[in-house]
Amino acid sequence: MLLRVLGEPGLENDVADIIYLFGQTPDNEDSVLTKAVEVYNQRRAKLIGFSTEKSGSAGYAGFQHWKDSLITADIPENIIVGINLLVLRENFNTLSEAEALIKEAKIRNWKKAYITAPAFHLPRAFITTISVVLREYPQLKVYSLVGIPLDWNERVRHSQGTTVGTRTELIMGELERIDRYHAKGDLVSLEKIFNYLGSRDTEV
After folding, report:
1. What gap in Å lies between CA 204 and CA 197, rounded to an integer?
2. Do 116 and 20 form a contact (C-beta atoms < 8 A)?
3. Can you say whether residue 43 is alpha, beta or left, with left for phi > 0 and alpha for psi between -120 and 50 degrees?
4. Helix count (H) and strand count (E) of the chain?
5. CA distance 40 to 17
6. What domain range is 20 assigned to?
7. Do 144 and 126 touch, CB atoms closer than 8 A?
8. Bridge partner residues of 113 (DSSP)
9. What CATH number corresponds to the domain at position 180?
């Protein structure tokens, strides 16, 4: 599954309705912000979206900070979209972000979406998003785009700013979270994920 998620080619000769940036700490935010600029410059997505909420003092810095960063990089303000997760729950996490994104996609009738996160976070973000898609909006086609690579050996803060380690060390924690949330019932089986991907890629 890791290879499948990290090796997604994306859409060919088509444009996604949105690229969604999963919230990152200041240590890791350049990975997704730079990726969003790249995708916009390549005209691969119509909108750039991310959460309207902050995530603790050391976590995701919030919508305005990221919006300002993108505008500084010459991204037009009118294509930057805030996704409000507080309509669903109070906790800021990967699941609540995915749920808010899919709720917004259904309301706006989006058909195709990219999601992006740093390489160590993207597999869980993608599996979580597809799990929500299958429950709430199976017509939506979601594609993963790995964020711009960062130094694997740098010690950084992750999650809500509470997890610290090198980016390489964070991989094991992410895999453990996938197992734990699957056992909890938040994530569907890998078989269902692969079935979704198969139908997504063969449907006209």
Report:
1. 13
2. yes
3. left
4. 7, 7
5. 11
6. 2-202
7. yes
8. 18, 142
9. 3.40.50.620
Cα angle 14, 101, 98 (rounded to 5 degrees) comes to 110
**Count of structural domains within the chain:** 1
**DSSP H/E element including 47:** strand 45-51
Please state the pTM of the whole predicted model. Answer: 0.94
Residue type, 121: H
| pLDDT per residue of the chain (204 residues) written in tens, 0 to 9 | 777 778 888 888 899 999 999 999 999 999 999 999 999 999 999 999 999 987 666 689 999 999 999 999 999 999 999 998 765 555 789 999 999 999 999 999 999 999 999 999 999 999 999 999 999 999 999 999 999 999 999 999 998 778 899 999 999 999 999 999 999 999 999 999 999 999 998 875
* Residue labelled with tokens 């890998």: 190
Residue 17: strand, helix, or coil = strand
Q: What is the DSSP letter of 138?
A: T
